[in-house]
Every structure is written in C-alpha cells, then in structure tokens.
Write a structure and sequence with these properties.
This protein is of the alpha/beta class and about 200 residues long. About 35% of the residues lie in helices and about 20% in strands. A hairpin with a 2-residue loop joins strand 2 and strand 3. The radius of gyration is 18 Å and the shape is globular.
C-alpha cells in the first residue's frame, strides 16, 4: 500500500492559501482516480482506493500543519506502510510558482509540516515539492504562505493540479523522475502554431 499525504491547514478560511497546495493536490488525485469519499480517521480525512494496480491511502491531516506527523505516523503504523511508500505533497518557497520537484529524504527547510513528519517518522520518505514562489523579503514570507492564491495564479495552478492528477500513477510505480518530467512538460507554454503558408496568388 502507498500513503499519499497532502499538507495544509483545516478550515474554510485556509482553503485557498498557498500553504494548502498539498491539500489541493491530494483532492485532485482523489477526484481523478475515484478514490472513496473522505472519512475521518487518524485525525485526518482519509480516502482509499486503487491507482493503477496499487492500493492507495490518500490523507489530509486535520491537526493543523505543525502537528501533521501525528496523523501520518498513525496511518503508516496501522497499515504497516514502509517509509519509502509514503509520499508527501507540500508547498515550497524556494521553487518558482508552478514548478515541481520530487525528492527522497532530506531536511525540512523550515517547513513545519515536514518537521513534524520528520519527528514522528524519520526523514526517509518521498516529498513532492510544489513551488509557490518566494515574496523576496523574509518579513513577507508568512503573509505570502498564508495568503490566498491570486486570480493571476489560477491558470498555472489549474494546469498543475490537472497534471498531478493525470500522472499520479507514475508515483506508485516508483517512477518519480517520469512523474516530474510529465508534470513539468504539461506546465510548458504551448508551442506557437506554424504560420500558415501564404496562399498562392
């Protein structure tokens, strides 16, 4: 079984925050792959189903970001899911908006959700880093992260979520590079159409 985790904060007031892009990604995967209706378990909203040929548990911890590890550890322990079958989607300040990177293990880089998971599980799990851009000023980081996506963000955000949902099957095949490549390709601007040949006079 695979455990796919989206990080965010519960509550409608946080729903459209940049910090909640992990929730958005998991919502898209649940929708695209017809996983079960979310139910409350492990202090989280949990959906189950199959992606490709792999059993999947998709979860959104409801503990608030800085306690996310409690939910993830409880689910992983209950289902005896190995750490290399845990995938965590989270917002990433150090990536340009719309960019994506997969990474195995590593540090929390100041992310409270990752720090909590590290404390409860260790660091040997997969992360999918979803770029939200950096405001350019340390003083503005909190407002940026906890601010809502703007209307100008909508186009790339919708494209990113659709690509994540479409290609999530590659993740559970352990083709992390293929997943990153496919999503990145989907985010490229469309190629300009070849100019129509001038009609013969």
């Amino acid at each position: 079984m695979w455990l796919i985790v989206g990080l965010g904060n519960p509550g409608s007031q946080y729903q459209h925050n940049r910090h909640n892009i992990g929730f958005m990604a998991v919502d898209e995967i649940i929708h695209r792959h017809n996983l079960s209706e979310p139910r409350k378990k492990f202090q989280a909203l949990v959906s189950e189903g199959v992606i490709g040929e792999e059993k999947v548990l998709a979860m959104k911890p409801q503990t608030y970001m800085n306690l996310s590890g409690q939910s993830v550890q409880a689910a992983a322990a209950f289902y005896k899911i190995p750490l290399d079958h845990v995938i965590v989607f989270h917002d990433e300040l150090d990536l340009v908006s719309g960019k994506i990177r997969t990474k195995f293990a590593g540090g929390a880089a100041g992310h409270n959700g990752l720090r909590s998971i590290d404390e409860h599980l260790g660091k040997e799990y997969w992360r999918v880093r979803l770029g939200i851009g950096h405001p350019g000023d340390k003083e503005a980081v909190t407002g940026h992260v906890l601010g809502d996506f703007s209307k100008a963000d909508r186009d790339w955000l919708e494209k990113l979520m659709a690509a994540i949902g479409e290609h999530a099957g590659l993740l559970v095949k352990k083709d992390m590079g293929g997943f990153m490549s496919k999503v990145s390709q989907a985010m490229l601007p469309p190629k300009p159409k070849k100019e129509e040949k001038e009609k013969e006079k």
